[in-house]
Amino acid sequence: MSLADRWHRIQALAERRLPSLTRMRQREALPIVLHRRRIYIVPTGFGLGFAVLLAVMLVGSLNYANNAALLLTCLLGAATAGSMLSAFRVLNGLGLGGLRAGNAVAGASLPVSFEVTGGARVRPGVHLDANAQKVGVVVPRQGAITVEFALPTEHRGWQPLPRIRVYSTWPLGMFRAWSWLNPDESVLVYPRPEAFGPPPYEPQSDADRGRPRSGDELAALRDYRPGDPLRQIAWKLSARHHDLLVKDLEQPSPKRDWRLDWQSMHGMDNESRISRIARWIDEAHGEGRRWSLQLPDRYFDVAQGDEHYHRCMTALALQP
Amino acid sequence: MTGHRPSLRSTHPAEVPLSPRAFDLLCLTMACVLGLHAVHLPWWMVAPLAVVLVGRWQQRRRNGKRAPIWLKLPMIGLLLAAIVGHYGSLFGREPGSAFAVGLLVLKLLESERIRDARVGIAFACFALMSALLFEQGMVVTALVALALAPALATLRSLEPAQPETSLAGSLPPVLLTLAAAIPLALFAFLFVPRLGSPLWGTPGNDQARTGLSNQMAPGDLTELLVDDSPALRVVFDGAPPPNVQRYFRAFVMWRFDGRAWAYGGPGLVRRASTLEPGRTTSYEITLEPTHRRVLPALDVPLAAPENADLSNDHEIFAQHNVDEARRYRLTSSVTYRLDPALDDRSRALGTSLPAGFDPRARALAEGWRQQYGNDDAAIVRAALTLFHDGGFHYTLAPAPLGRDSIDDFLFDTREGFCEHYSSAFTFLMRAAGVPARVVTGYQGGYWNTMGNYLLVRQSDAHAWSEVWLEGRGWTRVDPTGVVRPGRISEGASANTGSGAAWYQDGWLKSLRNHWDVVNQWWGRGVIGFDALRQQGLLTPFGIRQASVGTLSIVLAIGCAVLVVVALGWALFQRRDGDAWQVSMARLERKLGRVGIARRASEGPQHYLARAARALPARRKELERIQRFYLDARYGHDKPPPESLVSFRRMIRDFHPGRMVK
């Protein structure tokens, strides 16, 4: 077990055993506005080193009864102590909201963005740290800034957002003010399609064979009819005729609609079925096919396009 | 909303390369350190370091490569060799600070990362402080404090994710930070308990001794007489004595070896003088560090201050060298009879002269003795008449004197200043058999009306004689005053005739004297604030001798108070929005306390309607507020100001009471 793992275990144990310590880390609804009672300040390593230096300067100037040096030491000490308050002010009243999540299949990283609002003043040096991804931003006055993370995913279904540490070492890097943000929000992770497998079972029906469809290959030339798109006009050939000729494009064999059925697969467990259907949907969506989906509890009629894709994938992701 | 997309960072923050702005500021900081230390470093060390600094700055701006190791190592070796060669060691105040400054500048050669810059800045702060070990003046301290600004600005520029600023624009916020830190700094300065005695070693006093020496040979004082630095400041309890009575005695010199007069020495065992005091005056003297033990005092002091002793001749010597400014209170007698009866031993000492020197002067004095018989006062008058009418004149650049210095001066060159006159006069008196001695000290001074104190500069150093006369005891005779009366009535600045520096005159002089008030305030208030004065700090609050514990408690309490004030600033947040929204937010807080918090999806109409449903007892009030608010917000372009006032009153008078579940 690595040191980091062990540390995380100790942290988890501490949170279970001493809930009062982690009172402020309960999940809460967005938007979250940081309040003074949940902002903590600790010196950084550099801050500790500087404190040692200040102590040396203090003892030195006291020992040599050098009051000018003592005054300088006091001034430097007071200025650095004041930087603690500046760090605190960066976080006090900072707001996190405006969650937007993208889509990803399990195992890929999922883009998540937040809006950070600062209120009445500019807040430089705000850092957000989610799962060791660090982002530093300047939060503008009276506005918001969008912060993006790539969330690693593992399983399909709802995945809670990770705890976000927000911190700032502004202005001198001697103190770190920090707080935990634990948004009570989840993002949906789509099931991961299987790598390869058989195509779906296609009932042999000729119902829609031979219907011309707009495609890529040149089928024939015909006379121009009003309404034909300009890019289909065969300009070079038309030059030799006194009428405009239009290229009639057509798919050689139109793609069939797929009827995807949960029950069509036999002897497979749920996860395998889900990942196979996910692959079929992916393929169908990629090829521009139309498809229908029969799940144990729901049915999606034949359709195509992004909306249909997301509806089907969402239903798959949420399969028990 | 700004569509800014921040970048992801994976490297450790301290390993990030320095930005050009941060490097500029770092170079500026090092330049400040070098500049503040340049005063005491040899020029051949400052010049190459400045070249390295500027060269490195330019080089990183141009191509941004790091300096090669074959360049760095020899430079450090060279620096070490130069310091050891010049100072003889690496340890001590001068070589130590020279080494620190040199290393800081060379550190720039390898400053590429944030970590390097932080280490550099921390030690630059230390080096800035060490500049104050050489000089504690107000101007230097202020300059050093200002040099903290680029140092802190560098630290600021190292922080990631900050708005772009210009180089000049990065200094004002830091100056503001420093200014805001002044109250806490002053408070800590006042109450940090001072050490009664140092924890380790005492600082070496390798500063050249300034001020009066315990020897006096003609020509010795010349350097002192053109030194304009303050020697002592005197605050009188009553009116200050007139200029002609402002004689501050330091050393009484009995011994003469033919050339120089000296204080003390072997065989000088006398009984203590007896003093019959007349009119007295009390005063307080602040003496600049002299690194000697003597404490000058006006005329004849009655008793020595604490930690000092009164000598047989009523000189005062501190028990330790005066290494930092010292204040002492004295009461002196300005009319007195000192030693009305002279013992034989003193008489013998006061008339002894080395054999084989100055035959012509001896002959002249013996002639006076024969002429005036026993009338010592007449002999004094004869000598003064000689100085007045004998073609003597006063100059700070007299011709050099030979072996028989008194003869040469009296019969040959006839020019000189106080040392020559007092020395020759005392010699003549002794040769005539009148007990006489040389006294050195200060005479005159500038009365500073702004600060109500007398400022005595080193250039006010003076030498005169005391002769013992029957019935009057030791009597002061100032032969210089006979030659140049202005020296005594107007002070030292009347001395310097045509050779006067341009800054001695007019408004500049008064400006300099006013400036001295500030310097004195600094010297007394800051530099002279020692353990003793700190103990008396709380006297107005009834604590006579503040112990270290008391001071620590006061320090802690005061810091806590200041922290509370600062926290108030930190917690202050202007509420967003206009006056109507502020009032509405107040209502929301009131309702929120009884559990009716506004949902993010709710507008004022729905929210207040829901509140009215939840609080039937306040329903009418809430509906009125709702109507009023909606009318003001949406019924007008600009609601009349009086409606805001009444709305505020409504909100203020609204009390939600208890909610009906």
Describe the protein in words.
The complex is a heterodimer of chains A (320) and B (661). Chain A is built from 6 helices and 16 strands. By secondary structure, chain A is α+β, with helices and mostly antiparallel strands. In chain A, strands 2-10-9-5-6 form a 5-stranded antiparallel beta sheet. Chain A has a 4-stranded antiparallel beta sheet with strand order 1-3-4-7, with no helix packed on it. Chain A is elongated, with a radius of gyration of 31 Å. About 2% of the residues of chain A have low confidence. Chain B is elongated, with a radius of gyration of 38 Å. The relative contact order of chain B is 0.08. Classes of the chains: A alpha+beta (320), B alpha+beta (661). At the A-B interface, helix 2, helix 3, strand 5, strand 6 and strand 7 of A face strand 1, helix 5, helix 6, helix 7 and helix 18 of B. Strand 6 of chain A pairs antiparallel with strand 1 of chain B, so a sheet runs across the interface.
How do the strands and helices of this protein lay out in sequence?
The complex is a heterodimer of chains A (320) and B (661).
Chain A: H1 3-17, E1 32-33, E2 40-43, H2 45-63, H3 67-91, E3 95-101, E4 109-117, E5 123-130, E6 133-139, E7 144-152, E8 157-160, E9 164-168, E10 175-181, E11 186-189, E12 217-223, H4 235-239, E13 245-250, E14 258-261, H5 270-287, E15 291-294, E16 299-303, H6 306-317
Parallel strand pairs in A: 14-15
Antiparallel strand pairs in A: 1-3, 2-10, 3-4, 4-7, 5-6, 5-9, 8-11, 9-10, 12-13, 15-16
Helix pairs in contact in A: 2-3, 5-6
Chain B: E1 8-9, H1 20-37, H2 43-62, H3 69-87, H4 93-107, H5 114-131, H6 138-157, H7 171-191, E2 215-216, H8 222-225, E3 230-236, E4 247-256, E5 261-263, E6 275-277, E7 280-287, E8 294-295, E9 297-298, E10 300-301, E11 308-310, E12 316-318, E13 326-333, E14 336-338, H9 344-350, H10 359-372, H11 376-389, E15 393-394, H12 405-413, E16 415-416, H13 418-431, E17 436-443, E18 446-448, E19 453-457, E20 461-469, E21 473-477, H14 479-483, H15 485-490, H16 506-527, H17 531-535, H18 548-571, H19 579-593, H20 604-614, H21 619-634, H22 641-653
Parallel strand pairs in B: 15-16
Antiparallel strand pairs in B: 2-5, 3-7, 3-19, 4-5, 4-9, 4-17, 6-14, 7-13, 8-12, 10-13, 11-12, 17-20, 18-19, 20-21
